[in-house]
Each structure stands twice: as C-alpha cells, then as structure tokens.
C-alpha cells in the first residue's frame, strides 16, 4: 500500500463517523438532552481556573443531604469539538440515585494543546475533590474524554499537591490511548502532534500511577482501529495488575453508546454505579 492509500485508510479508521451513519443526529441529541437536564435539575457552574473555558457543570442530588459519590465526565470531540454543555444527559439517572454528576469543560484545539487540556483536567479534579472531600469519585469519558480520564490515571498526584489520586475508579468508553496513529491524519491538523509529543500524551506510553478499578468498553459498530485501541489498553491495565472489565456493547456505535448512561438497567450504567458504591 502506498503512502497516500495508507493515509486515506488511517483517516477512515480514526474517523468514528465512517461507521456511524446516525452520528450527527446523536450529537444533536447530546445537546438537546443536556439542555433538558440543565432546565430540569439544580446545578452549579464552578470555575476551576482563570480562563473562561475552565468550568464544571455540577449536578448535586436534592433528595439526599450530602452526597457520598460523584461521577466526573470528560466529553469527547477529538479535543477540538463539543463542550460540557453537551455532556449533561447522564445527570438525571445519577441524581435520582443520589449520585452527583460533574461535566468538565476544557479548552479546545487549536487554541490549546492536548498537554494543556490534560493539565486543565487535573485542575478540575483538584477543584472537585476540594469541594466534595468525602465523596467517592469515579472518573469517566468517551473517545477523547476517555483518553483524558486515562491520562489522569497516569498522573503523579503528589506533584499536583495531593497525597493520593482523588478518584477510585474509571469508566473508559470508546477511547483512544495511543495517539501515534493520529500524527499522519487530518485529525492532527489542529492538534499539531509529532511523534514525541504524541508519546507524552498517550496513556499507552505512560507509567500507570493510579491502579483503580477500570471499565474499558466500546460499541459493536466501531472501526477496527478504535476497537484495537481499547483491547490494547485493557491488556496494558491487566498486565499492570489493575482490576479491569472489558467488553463490547452490542448494537451501539462510537456515539450512541453514551446514552446507555441514561438507563440504570444497562450494563454500562450498572458498572458505573457499582464503582460508585451505589449498587
């Protein structure tokens, strides 16, 4: 295969929409469902830094006094699209079960590098841990958001001024954990990665610092590259001795898999609640 054909093939393999015909309608529903959640539920907008992009949308359940658990979600969009306001649709299911929910916003490429975005996510976690010091926290994300959550498990939290990681579990959905394959694709145009910088922000090439229970899952209708990314990262976790649950979600693709977080009977929601100690 010549270089041009290989580039086209990699572009397709790392384009989740190439096997998800409904992707735009699903993304539109992210926004619509999140808007409904924000209108229905009490929530706070919390700044965790000085930049206007650095905020968290926090939904705290009203039924219980102080909440004992918190799910922190990092949205996808290849680090260059979407926002926390598109990632609030899981809040109703969790709040109804006494779980707080936080959608983390961060700056987007090309205005921020992936390394800067990771640093923002670290700052957001420190903010939430200070606000809810006694909560059991689980982190999670989809696609680029799963990458960011995985990078938090590779963070030395003592260097961030904390005695230990502020979370006890991770839910990684349809993630990308080795960024090297992106370097030669159209996706990299706003990211500006080269081989060295891709290494520094790839969970697959970092030493694991937080051995927390982890779920790694993906949709049945994903590209082979995305499926292999999850398989490879789950294998790395298992070899490191991390308790890891790995599975494919039938009949779902890279985008609509997230709506499994809105129904407590789905396996993805059940696993999330288990890690939060709510099952």
Secondary-structure element pattern, one letter each: HHEEEHEHEHEHEHEH
- Output the strand order for the largest sheet: 1-2-4-3-5-6-7-8
Beta-strand segment tally:
8
Q: Quaternary arrangement of the chains shown?
A: single chain
Unreliable runs? 1-6
Q: Report the total helices.
A: 8
Describe the protein.
It contains 8 helices and 8 strands; from the N terminus they run ααβββαβαβαβαβαβα. The protein is of the alpha/beta class. Strands 1-2-4-3-5-6-7-8 form an 8-stranded mixed sheet, sandwiched between helices. Strand 1 and strand 2 form a beta hairpin. Helix 4 crosses helix 5. The longest helix has 18 residues. It is globular. The chain starts with a helix and ends with a helix. The N terminus is likely disordered.
Any key phrases for this structure?
19% strand; alpha/beta; eight-stranded mixed sheet; disordered N terminus; Rossmann fold
